[in-house]
Design brief:
This protein is of the alpha+beta class and about 500 residues long. It has 21 helices and six strands. The protein is about 55% helix and about 5% strand. Strand 1 and strand 2 form a beta hairpin. The radius of gyration is 25 Å and the shape is globular.
């Protein structure tokens, strides 16, 4: 005779009124990893924001906002810095974000805190100008925005007694992971880059990536066949595994393992701040509750068996539907307008709506390393009092002294070091005008900017002149490193612009 006793897991399914396996545990872990990402992002930015965009920083946000207001484009720049752009306020935004990130990790009031975390990071991203224009900043904004609608309501929701995750938002999160991975693979083929087509891209990558680490040197020494095999694996993970995201459980497990493993390998051989952790967090919604350890499920079922059915929110389907419509609209407009595929032209009212929604930077396209750089130009900043003897400034993370071992940054994102890598690729200071601002701050002896550096060769007073020189850097090989201890070898390319001096000190 069949038993009439309702098991806890059946009770959970009946509470949800849903046939697909629930994702309570996946959401629980996802939100806490997202809190860790927010904590790393705000902490990392907080220790360098004054030197980047503060009053005496490289690109002061106050001047930026004045220019925006003069151009009549304030509505396209959503930031709390319109209220105040002082250094204490900028640091306060970072501190507030870090504190609320800790609250999110603890599971306190996730929805309202996620709203503020998103708005706070949006404000800093907009104010950060070129220093916060990376794809992982856009990814954090998009993930954080969707998380607002994915999180459970309440002041302190308890696992198993909280409202069910929105299926629509769950699929939007999975779609975001698909976009990130699949588009990163597609752009490599779309650009027809010879290194990707010839399977040699990773032969150059470890040496030419923005901030290599000592494990990058080891990977660079691997034979060419290994690098070619690694490119094939990369294409499989980026082009084929994302297709499994929308499949049954076994397919999603394969996607989770493959994408997650690639992120761990990237984090172990390069410095990408919080990007890899954020991508791993995005993999969590692929897992339903049955994929987690038995004791986790037991706790979930125990809590669910003693809970009353959560009240259904009539507005939630409408909110989820509107959210999906906005996300799809902005993404399609990205493809149509940003890619120059508008035939026939898009009506002006639709463009205005798109421009307004796009200003919040929360629906994006992605494409990492579409073209692989095969050389590593490196900017070396030097100062002098007589234009004869030049002493180099050393940075904390980017290559400089050839004897210094490349270091791990962890979850920290050194924005100045990263942007100097991009500037070096431009090859001319006129294409990266912010570098001129940076050099002027060195002549002025700005303490906030000097704090971004690892070593100041002029501790007593600023030099009379500074210049930027461009070098070609390469990893050494086993014999050279064994004989000299050097991690790098370099050759001078030429000046990166002319030496500059402050008029008052010439």
């Amino acid at each position: 005779m069949p038993s009439t006793t309702t098991r806890p897991r059946d009770r959970l399914h009946s509470l949800l009124g849903a046939s697909p396996p629930p994702v309570f545990l996946g959401r629980w872990v996802f939100l806490r990893l997202l809190g860790c990402v927010y904590l790393a992002a705000f902490w990392s930015l907080g220790v360098q924001i004054r030197g980047l965009i503060g009053q005496n920083g490289i690109l002061p946000v106050a001047r930026f906002l004045e220019a925006v207001q003069a151009a009549g484009a304030a509505w396209q720049v959503p930031t709390f810095c319109w209220i105040n752009s002082s250094d204490p306020f900028l640091v306060g935004l970072c501190v507030a974000g870090a504190v609320l990130a800790v609250a999110l990790i603890a599971g306190v009031a996730p929805v309202p805190f996620l709203v503020f975390l998103w708005a706070d990071y949006l404000s800093l991203t907009v104010a950060g100008q070129t220093f916060l224009g990376f794809q992982w900043d856009a990814l954090l904004l998009e993930t954080g925005f969707l998380a607002i609608f994915f999180a459970p309501g309440g002041l302190w929701p308890r696992l198993g007694q909280e409202s069910a995750p929105s299926r629509v938002v769950l699929w939007l999160l999975r779609l975001l992971l698909f976009k990130l991975m699949f588009l990163s693979g597609v752009v490599k083929l779309w650009t027809n880059d010879p290194t990707w087509m010839g399977l040699t891209a990773l032969h150059y990558h470890y040496e030419t990536q923005p901030l290599p680490i000592w494990t990058s040197w080891w990977m660079q020494q691997a034979p060419l066949w290994f690098h070619k095999l690694s490119v094939i694996v990369t294409f499989i993970v980026e082009l084929f595994l994302p297709l499994l995201i929308f499949g049954p459980r076994v397919c999603r497990v394969l996607a989770f393992v493959g994408i997650g493993s690639l992120q761990l390998l990237i984090a172990a051989t390069g410095n990408y701040g919080f990007f890899n952790l954020l991508t791993v967090a995005l993999c969590l919604p692929l897992l339903d509750d049955r994929m987690f350890p038995a004791r986790w499920r037991a706790r979930l079922y125990r809590e669910a068996s003693s809970a009353a059915a959560p009240p259904r929110r009539r507005l939630r389907p409408w909110i989820s539907g509107a959210l999906a419509a906005v996300v799809l609209f902005v993404f399609i407009m990205h493809v149509v307008v940003a890619r120059g595929a508008s035939r026939p032209p898009v009506p002006r009212p639709i463009l205005k709506v798109y421009a307004f929604l796009d200003s919040f930077r929360s629906v994006n396209t992605y494409g990492l390393f579409a073209n692989m750089t095969t050389r590593r130009p490196e900017i070396i900043i030097e100062g002098s009092d007589d234009r004869t003897t030049w002493l180099p400034y050393e940075f904390k993370w980017k290559p400089g002294d050839v004897q210094r071992r490349p270091r791990f940054t962890g979850f920290h994102m050194p924005r100045l070091d990263w942007q100097l890598w991009f500037a070096a690729l431009d090859g001319d200071i006129r294409r990266a005008p912010w570098v001129g601002n940076f050099l002027i701050r060195l002549l002025q002896g700005s303490p906030q900017v000097l704090d971004l550096l690892g070593h100041n060769p002029f501790p007593d007073r600023p030099p009379r002149y500074v210049r930027a020189m461009l070098y070609d850097y390469h990893f050494t090989d086993w014999p050279t490193r064994g004989a000299t201890g050097a991690w790098w070898r370099r050759e001078l390319i030429g000046p990166f612009g002319r030496p500059i001096a402050l008029e008052s000190r010439q």
